[in-house]
Amino acid sequence: SWNSENAAKKSPQALIQHIFRYHPPKNGEQCPTDFSDSTMKKTLLKTIRVYHQDKNPVDPHGLSWHLLCREITKQLNEKYELYK
Predict the structure, then answer these.
(1) pLDDT at 1 (0 to 100)
(2) CA atoms within 13 A on the CB side of 11
(3) Which alpha helices (DSSP H) does 1-84 contain, by range?
(4) Residue-wise over 16-51: b if at least 16 C-beta within 10 A, else e?
(5) What pTM, to 2 d.p., does this model score?
(6) What is the pLDDT of residues 44-56, one digit of tens each?
């Protein structure tokens, strides 16, 4: 299950891998494979787009998935801020 406190402690790569493993996206998107420093910002942005709540509406995905995506996006945005 999702634990935002633990998520905040993970590196960006570990967080993304955890999200894709335990909460695979509904659109079938695969986990990124390039986590190099030069592409991490782009990888985070791509993952934010996959999980953004606007891309995962309550209908047809359900409220719990929508709310989970909102929390995932929040955690990813916090990691993204480190690369600005």
Answers:
(1) 55
(2) 7
(3) 4-9, 12-22, 40-51, 58-61, 63-81
(4) bbbbbeeeebeeeeeebeeeeeeebeebbeebbebb
(5) 0.89
(6) 999 999 999 999 9
Query: Could you tell me the two tokens for 56?
Result: 């995962």
CA distance 65 to 61: 6
The rounded distance, in Å, linking the Cα atoms of 27 and 12 is 21
Q: Which two tokens stand for residue 11?
A: 């590196």
On whether the CB atoms of residues 44 and 58 are closer than 8 A, the answer is no
Which residue has 């782009």 as its token pair? Answer: 42
Report the amino acid identity of residue 62: G
